[in-house]
Amino acid sequence: MADDIEASTIALITAQTEIDPATINDQTELADLQIDSLVLTEIVMEIEDKYDIEIDLNAAEAWDSLKTVGDMTAMVKKLIAARA
Amino acid sequence: MSDRRVVITGIGGICALGGNAADIWAGMKQGQDGCRPLTIVKRDLKTDIGFSITDYPEDDGIEKRQGMAMSWISRIAVIAAREAMAQSGLSIETADPSRIGSIVGVGTFGTDALEDAYTDIFIEGKKRTQLFTVPKVMPSGPAGHVSITLGLKGPVYGVSSACASGNHAFASAVDQIRLGRADAMLAGGAELALIYGPLKAWESLRVLARNTCRPFSADRDGLVLGDGAAIAVLESYDHAKARGAEILAEVAGIGMSADASDIVNPTVEGPAAAMRACLADGGLSADEVGYINAHGTATQANDQIETRAIRDVFGADADAVSVSSTKSMHGHCLGASSAIELIACVGAVREGIIAPTINYTTPDPLCDLDITPNEARDRKVDVAISNAFAFGGTNAVVAVKRV
């Protein structure tokens, strides 16, 4: 499940940004992927829909707290665990 | 540029702070917070606060036949316009109606009517929308209804630039007068934001505050939407003088610019260029400006960028100017915001009182201007400017001065 979340989170990021998933890992900085706060918000919403979770972040806070791909997958995992 | 001077001879408004401009100004001076729980049917909305109008008159005096084809956005525009017209003493019995027009800025349109139409069709399964959905929805509806109500036959149209619409309406109206096309213009803005569909859309953008609107405070977390309208009577100085009207203030300058950058992320350069253009238009120097009514939406991005833009334009004078965001009290009424904020600017130059930025708790080093925290302040103001920097990167700044 955990790896699945990682892969599908990366898939959602790449779908928004047209970046080759093979070039992305946990340490990849979102800023390096040309993701700005609004693209990030769009990705957060896609993740919410996919996992039926609610991420309570406004656009600015998401940008401040989520710096890397790993930050995103960690947050998603935490919320899914909380839901279960 | 024409040297035709333009003055303000009346101003009316309705928003969360009150049902007329005097009450709105009194609320601003007291630091009144118009934010309250939403009273609309919320369905699945997460947002539960807004700056709603509670002082709508029991009998709004709008004729039944006209009212059947009106969105609430037009009703509040008409209420504000009637108040402004009455204060100005202007009358189509004594003035030529073809020389008086109306320009009302809207960020959106008759959102209530579109929502009713979708509800009727998609939820209620009705076969048709209400008869007057088209004229209710159109963004020029408020300007048209102001003209119909007051009998104004000069230039009448709507303008739209999202959250700067009110100031762009003032700019357009000033142009009509400077160009000699009109002697007076009823100009301002109107907005109905507290409607399910628009609120749902704003929620998606994730820029709405959770609890309250705290411009420039480090703990700010977004804007809070509001309903409202404000309309001013702008009039050529000669026309106002000739009929012995009381002049509330003079429109000292207009500045416009565009970021040409991003549809939602602001730049420093665009807003700075609009403020510079406004000062240049009025032949004003930065040290003459005593008050800036900030755009001050309470999003992280706006308030930082606006601070930098003000510092860029005002240089060493930036620390001496009083700044405030009255959106902390009347909310972000989108297209109506800058029109409502003109009430604060006119009040500042007339009474020497700076309306505060309320709900301020924590200094933000990136918003280090004198933002008049929490309490109004006495200060003689010769010139006040009103900033409006919108989505789309469309910026408009209006300066007023004491006459």
Helix content of chain B: 25-40%
Order of helices and strands of chain A: HHHH
Largest interface by residue count? Answer: A-B, 12 and 13 residues
CATH architecture of the largest domain in chain B: 3-Layer(aba) Sandwich
The number of domains of chain A:
1
Q: How many β-strand stretches of chain A? A: 0
Give the mean pLDDT of chain A.
82
Q: Strand arrangement, largest sheet of chain B?
A: 5-4-6-7-1-8-14-13-9-10
Instruction: Using the alpha-carbon principal axes, give the shape of chain B.
Output: globular
Structural class of chain A: mainly alpha
The strand count of chain B comes to: 14
Low-confidence segments of chain A: none
| The CATH topology of chain A | Non-ribosomal Peptide Synthetase Peptidyl Carrier Protein, Chain A
Quickly give the structural class of chain B: alpha/beta
- The unreliable regions of chain B are none
Shape category of chain A: globular
CATH homolog superfamily of the largest domain in chain B: Thiolase/Chalcone synthase
**Assembly status:** heterodimer
